[in-house]
Amino acid sequence: MNSLATRQVEVKLQSSGSGPSGAVGSLSAERGASGTERWSLIAAGALAVFYLVSSLYIARERPFWTDEILTVDIAHLPNYATIWSAVTHAVDGGSPVYDVLVRWSDQVFGGGEVSARLPSALAMVAGLLIAFDCARRLTDGLHGLIALCVLTSSFLPYYGHEARSYALFFMLAALSLWVWLHTSNDSRASAMLFGAIFFLAVAMHYYAVLCLAPYVLWEIYCWRRPSRKLIAGAVGAVLPLLLLLPAIVSFAPVVVAYNRWASPSFASLMDVFPALFPGGLWLLALIAIWIALADNRDKKVVLQPRQAGETIGWLFLCIPLVGFAVAELKTNAFLGRYFIGVLPGVAIAAACLVWRRVPQARRVSLGILLILAIFGVTKQVMAIRYPDHYAPVRQVLGLEKTLRDDGKRFFVVCNQARYLEAQHYSNHPNDYVLLASLDSGDLRQTMALARYYPMQIWTLNDLRKHTGESAVILPTPRILNELKEAGFEVEMKFSRPLEVAYLR
Q1: Sign of CA dihedral 281, 284, 289, 292
Q2: pLDDT beyond 70 at 63
């Protein structure tokens, strides 16, 4: 009896791999897995450091563009009450919460381009690591890196060195997906955390409310009543919209005025995904070629079942569709960068898909990782090499001495974007003038900002009083024609580095 029991135990041990040979195999597999996880963590950390350092370098070298100047100008207002007054008078369509965050960053780090852009750089890197960990938990370290590199192959790295709220929007979208997938559905604490994440996300960017769509669709797909998390997320998303409603309502007329470039259309909807992944088709072609060459057809591939995390990730692709409907019905604002919250879901779903489709061919996954990583790093290196590839403000400022030597006291600009940039960076901001009557855009933001900062905004009658003292910078053919029709004699003084016209 004892010998029979002993034999049964031995058989069970051998079948379960717990005997001597099975123990060695299991131990070696565990060591291999732990080794893979270790190097994947090191690689993720190295990529995170690279993108943080490179983003801060670009942030230091690249001048602010117009929207960033609006953010910084609002953040530098005397107090929080004035900031609230500015955003409720349509100075900027961004959230005052983000403006306050930039204000704190400037106060701590001393002001300038780097301190204003630091929250974005940190948020981008945090979002990369959150997405990596989320995908790693669903698959393994190698495919977690694939998710990270899908993100760095998108337009995301640009927002790591921009003083706008998009990188924080992305980070909180990634964190919401992590909490949804990796915390208990029945826990009150996880529901409260999910709601808090959506509260912060919508407080940073109003379109973050659209990131509820994939979770709503998932629960409809599962045919179940709304979970605690979903209810908490909805409450968390609605509260900041109500609290910030005065700012949202005040900016609505400006959005309507910008109808020519921000309005929803079928063409703009088709452009969303190419905007999110500028090199997407090219990368897909390279990946398809690699799979065709590297996959071993002789091996029988056993597909893994699709996980809930992958399905929810692909449902993030519905966000632009919901956003398009919202823009058509109400907001009239539809730009690709408003849907940066799509990225973490797509990256994690893509990593899960690769893991599920080629589980026995790790060289296929490794090749995909290298293609994505090389593309992302190369793109970032090019940005480091040419950090201010389009910065006309430097050329404008470089003309100041020449124009003063010619007796010009006023530098007239007919484009509010160029005017705001020049006034922000010049040591003599009062020498710049915005010729409002010839600006083809809506001037409500600039006029609202003029309530808080001294600006010179002229009409043609003002220009006539200072004709001989004025130089018109960057005049377009339309502007030159309108000046001639108004009775001015126009002489093109320079064509390089920028066009400059003198008036008589």
Answers
A1: negative
A2: yes
